[in-house]
Amino acid sequence: MSQKNETTVFILALLITLGLIGGGFWWFAMSSGAKLKNLLNQEASDRISFGEKILALGEVLPLEQEGVKAIADRHYKKAITRLEAALKLKRNDPYVLIFLNNARIGTGKSYTIAASLPISNDPNTSLEILRGIAQAQNEINQSGGIQGIPLKVGIANDEDNPEIAKEIAQILVDNQEVLGVVGPGASDATLAAGTVYTNGQLVAISPISTSVKISNFSRYIFRTVPSDFTAARALADYMVKKLQKKNIAVFFNSQSNYSQSLKSEFVASVSLEGGQLSSEFDLSKSDFSAAKSVEQATKQGAEVLMLAPNTETLDKALQVVEINQKRLALLGGDDVYTPKTLEVGREQSVGMVLAVPWHIEGNKSSGFPYKSRQLWGADVNWRTAMAYDATRVLLTAIEKNPSRSGVQQVIASPNFSITGASGTVRFLPSGDRNSQVQLVQIIRRNSSRSGTGYDFVPVSQ
Prior knowledge:
CATH architecture of the largest domain: 3-Layer(aba) Sandwich
Strand content: 15-25%
Number of domains: 2
Structural class: alpha/beta
Helix content: 40-55%
Strand order of the largest sheet: 8-7-9-10-11-14-15
Low-confidence stretches: 2-40
Order of helices and strands: HEHHHEHEHEHEEHEHEHEHEHEHHHEEEE
Number of helices: 15
Largest sheet: 7 strands, mixed
Number of strands: 15
CATH topology of the largest domain: Rossmann fold
Shape: globular
CATH superfamily of the largest domain: Response regulator
């Protein structure tokens, strides 16, 4: 063979080898990508339970563990026995009640909805929301179901993380049995997952997302909680007309859609009332100092401190309450409405006024407070009421048209309305709930519901 031919053969062999190697790398990359995607989907699937796995953190009763294992093994009679016994010991546990109702259905026909919640990073909020869902499920199943068909509920842990919420949304969209979703919780998670729910034509109703960015976001995204626009207007009106003060300093988290939304709407509302913003402070900054911030706000003429933290920055907001020592008036958003505020703020929080969607003492004619006390053995808060309403909305829509498109059409109808825990539930074309907020104030109370000596009580409006 000539040298020229040898060279040609060598070059061809080299090209073939490189092609095989490149193809191998391409196959490996594609294979790895597919495996990674499957792994992510598997991880997301592990975050969803219809009773076959425990998602909640903290102490779990052996009876509950046995019941969950029995559901996983499809031993439904055993599961029912164990979970009924567990419920007697943990009367206020919505996980047990939901899993029990699911076990009673077993492999029988059912309608299915799911809840997307921040279980691992905000367990208390998740419990509050789940109590509303569990109560609505229990009531409909105890009364014979939706035209004879019981309701099954799945629970998902999205951690209020937008990316995780999107993965869970895709799994729920792919599960054609799911006819609606209660959640997500945080506005950022709702906005992220909302695109997936919209593409999958699956209705999601958030019980606690208040950002104004959710208004008109999608025809498949609704909420039973009033938007930040409504809360901001109520707080600004109270500040100017009741407190007769106009200069404000605002504390917020620039990394939270909810916090940014409430802050912006409040500042705009105050401006319309003739007030002004003297200073603003970002709770998310690593060098944030409550002491320096309150001192600066005072020097710049602030008369009112408006607290608009999200869950992650609540502790810093409560530092502001402590440093303030009741010198300047305090206002707050609904994320401040938590037992922690009463426990930590105590005397320094007395007089603070918050805007919340609902208060158990705000509507004396509603039967929901009595029914919820009978079921859970204690009072519930606005998150439970809003979740109950969201679930009741889905139940009504499923009863009228048990399909994904049917559920959306029923809820979006201008004639749609139901009577929920917090009165009439109807929606604006934007997907927002058409309702007002309730202002509440922190007071000192010897026989407090919270057990702290302090309570939130309605402000007469």
